Amino acid sequence: MNKRRRSYLAVAFALTVAVPAAAVEKTTVQPQPVKATEVCARNDSGNAVQMPENGFSDVRGLGFIPPWGSNGRDVWLERFDAAEYRRLIQLGKKAFPKLNTLRIVFSMDAWYDNRELAVQNMRKAGEIVKSEGMKMIPVYFNNWHTIPDFGGLSHEILKSGSGTWKNFGNYITEVAQTLEPLDVVLVHDICNEPLNNCLYWEEGTERMRDFVAKMAEYLHSVSRVPVTVGSQAGPWKRTTCGVDCDIDLFAPCVDVISCHPYIVMGREFGSREKYLDWILEKAAKYGKPVLATECCIGARTDAERVEIIRKELDGLVRRRIGFVAHGLTPSPAADLHKAKEGQGGGFFMPFMDLNGVVRPGHEAFNEY
To answer: Does residue 148 have a cis bond before it (omega within 30 degrees)?
Structure first.
């Protein structure tokens, strides 16, 4: 979540929490169908990209950044604790029996610092997720920057030339190839919220579009697993790069339309129902399935958060859109810890504590 989004959250809460919920509007767009072994694209080798047999509508996931680091280097290098990683996942499964997917943010920075150790630990994470009977959504790059900063991309980095982009390709293909034999990846997520800090900036948006397209090529060259990019799926107030929303910008190069349909998004439509229908209409235009890879924004109190969880998940499930809420446990990473001196807390978004105790009311996850 970026800072600009936070700037209007007080208004959003007034609209979505303080005011009693109105009667649910009738959905006009048909829920997305579940297609068996759907083929959406072909990689450079001519191998079909295979969709999960039951599509994505049954995805019930949580984002997971473990509690020993606020940035990618701390998470994936020397501090990585496989036993603790497994323990927290097992606690999550016990607390949330429907949990079947974890969205896990990898780190290019860690790979640059210690390539061998980073890949080793990322593979170990995949092995643990697999052994616990779950799927993972690896996120390879990040353009969500706040305090503390997890690390990731900047437009200065993307401007640094083709040699750097080749290194990006080496990173993304090495990790993807390491995970491929495990059969644990549900979908490859190229980048978390790639358009943060460049919306309406023609040069920056164009460069990010080209970057995502190039990384999709790399992934399709080594993996049959479908590819997506974790965009916010919001309409723009004016055209940039010839399109008026990020779905149109990225859809041609990915296999799955990802969205982060937080309750503060899509206010231009006048209702959340119309906003979610718009996402499905856009996906139908490209003939691609939809998956919400982030949802359930934080709030000032547990009670307010639970009301938001219900509103967000209800709209998704009625449209048969699978979801990954944020997040599993507390972490020093932004939005997963309470505010403290000199380090913003943002929104406290974990669903359980480090002992597996579910936050009050957050067992609502299990109802969907």
So the answer is: yes
